Amino acid sequence: MHDAVPNPVRDRLQACLGAQRSALAEHGPLSPKRRAACLEGLADAIVRHAEDFAQAIAADFGHRSFHETKLADLYPVVAALRHARKHFRTWMKPRRRPIQLMFQPGQGRVLYQPLGIVGIISPWNYPVQLTLSPLAGALAAGNRVMIKPSEITPHTSTLLEKVIGEVFDRSEVAVVQGRPDVAKAFARLKLDHLFFTGSTAVGRQVMQAAADNLVPVTLELGGKSPALVAADYPVEKAAERIALGKLFSAGQTCIAPDYVLVPRPLTAAFVSAFRDAVARLYPTLADNPDYTAIVSDRHYERLRQLVADAQSRGARVHEINPAGETFDPSCRKMAPVVLTDVPDPALVMSEEIFGPVLPVVAYDDLDEACRFIAARPHPLALYPFSHDRRAVDRILELTISGGVTVNDTLLHCVQEELPFGGVGSSGMGAYHGEAGFRTFSHARSVFRQARFNGAGMTKPPYGSRMNRLLSMLLR
What we know:
Strand content: 15-25%
Strand order of the largest sheet: 10-11-12-9-8-13-14
Structural class: alpha/beta
Low-confidence stretches: none
CATH superfamily of the largest domain: Aldehyde Dehydrogenase, Chain A, domain 1
């Protein structure tokens, strides 16, 4: 993040930021009326351009299911915008706070103010949802926003710029496109808050760059999110639900199950059940419109290398190709792979997979499985499978993760009333719904002194009266 940045890039970003600063100084933050219009107008624009977005994302990926795009990239955004539109006036109301007896009858309250200008750096894997869902919170709080979308999905980024331009003036929301040099310069801007979604490695660089200007950050990162199948849960049902979460968008989801812990006696049964589930969900792969391609040649080769590395270290590779198809590498469709007997030094056990590769880890008792999870960096998501409430509570007690879905996968992410965010290596801060409004607001404390009050008791010269007061307070 400290590389030399070409002046034209820096100047272009500074000009955009300067225009928003001038608008903020002249007109102030977005009024409640304007916030409502922005949130509803953007939701309508997403619906209006739904087919355009589906086509743009498919073009960027080589192929991506239109259904998956509408379900995971568009629907959550429309839901988030309309949820914020409905509730933001309640969220922004001042909150009364109780005052200690000594300072009564003074009054205390908290006012929620916009931070000012928010920057959003968004990733390629869900290029609409992970750009516009944080935007919903930032707008609900009344901020102006600059957005740097991913260069890996250029068709979608161009369409985002067009659609946002239909709803907003650039002094309100501006999209700035460009390659990684633009992202580096963007992270150095003196913003009022920076929201980044991406890898842990890049998140570190973003945080370092923002620190130079003391810009507060929200980091939505990734990590190796485990599924943990308890002995009481039907292995066939667990396998199908994990397959659904793992293979949605071919595993290119930050909260996809990264690996699965299975009781040792059930390992073979789980692999067989997972294979059967894939065959039901995706009877063919190569030309199946429901099965998504890997986004780029680099990511495709990285996944192949992860499998090859695991196999070279003694792991067993179970490729799942229900129709026995031959794949053209240029199309970047990759058959699902299950890995068993994976040694811990294998790269697939330390690097986030982000593809249709699933290591299966055998365990002997539940506490051992929990210790396996707890010994690793905190994941973004955790998926316990058990009908035993005490077992689930035990898993939650012994592990830490950003969020949890019990007996399914992914679904905590689309609940607008639940905060979404990571912890430790998987991120900091949260958004969605009211949590997003709070992230992009300053909670301003206000104490109002009463006309008649006891403040005179605490001013010098101090004497016996103060001694008696302190004796009472510290008793």
